[in-house]
Amino acid sequence: MERFWVFIFFLSSIRNGSSRRDLSLQPGGYITIPCHYDKQYIQHKKLWCFSWISAYKYCTIQAYANNTADRVTVTDYPDQNLFTVTMRNLKTGDTGSYWCAVEIEEGPDVYEQFYITVTSGVDPVVSVVESSVEGQEGGVVRIQCLYSAGYQSEQKQWCRSKDQRCYTVGRINTSQNSAVQISDDGRRRSFSVEMSGLKKSDAGWYGCRIGKLEVPVLLSVSDAAPATTMPSATMSPATMTLYSSSGMITPPFNK
User: Fold this and answer.
1) From the UniProt record, which GO molecular function terms apply (predicted)?
2) Which of 90, 85, 127, 112 is CA-nearest to residue 217?
């Protein structure tokens, strides 16, 4: 099965600050970054911008929300307080500083900075076998997360993007009464996540996290399959044949 070589960091919410997220990517790949924002910014413009230097005021806007420009697509999901940025067909020239931001007309913009390095010949640190999974309500889904050599001792977590709730090795009941179980196989450099008793509220963005690096997984939860009812059996009238010394007697069986 095809692996998705994608690195990503999830944002609990866009904010001003000096922190920077570093990502190391390969040419020809793609990256999708979910950027969460506060409800108060639903009506504000969202954007993705780039600069050769680490200064937001000098960045060049690559795309606004719900637009595609060249190899960049920005999509807003106001019902989720989230917009995503997808960069496709990555090139070494894409190396530089980026920001996902919300424009504020009467004050400073709010933003989160990334530094993306695109280099050839570098194995991905974190990857997933499938970047999106779907399960039925009440059912089970399984996700396999892969990591590079040298990361066996790093903490492995399964994190929900919107609230940054994370789960480590073991079994933990969530507030939705579903359960999360994580098992790590250091020899194969992979850890597996199993979510059981799925609820509709479990749907959304998650991340396989190793240390500070994450790779995204989108979970969809569909309606439970309708229960099937077996048709009831109908007994047909039957007869029983008896034999006696005087001959054959066939009385009715269904009296």
Assistant:
1) transmembrane signaling receptor activity
2) 127
In this prediction the pTM is: 0.71
CATH fold match for the domains 20-118 and 126-221: yes
Q: Domains of the chain: which residue ranges?
A: 20-118, 126-221
Amino acid identity for residue 3 in this structure: R
User: b/e for 98-110, b at 16 or more Cβ within 10 A?
Assistant: bbbbbeeeeeebb
Domain 126-221: top CATH class: mainly beta
Q: What's the pLDDT band for 61 if we cut at 50, 70, 90?
A: very high
Q: Look at residue 228 in the predicted model and tell me its pLDDT.
A: 66
Look at the block and give the residue holding tokens 């570098």: 122
Q: Which CATH class is domain 20-118?
A: mainly beta
Asked if residue 227 lies in contact with residue 136, where contact means CB atoms within 8 angstroms, the answer is no
Query: Strand locations in 31-81, DSSP E?
Result: 31-36, 46-51, 60-64, 67-69, 72-77
Q: What's the token pair of residue 65? A: 């929300």
**Whats the size of the chain, residue-wise?**
255
Euclidean distance between CA atoms 52 and 60, whole angstroms: 9
d(CA 10, CA 21): 10
Evaluate whether 83 touches 72 at the Cβ level (below 8 Å).
no
Tokens of 138: 């009440």
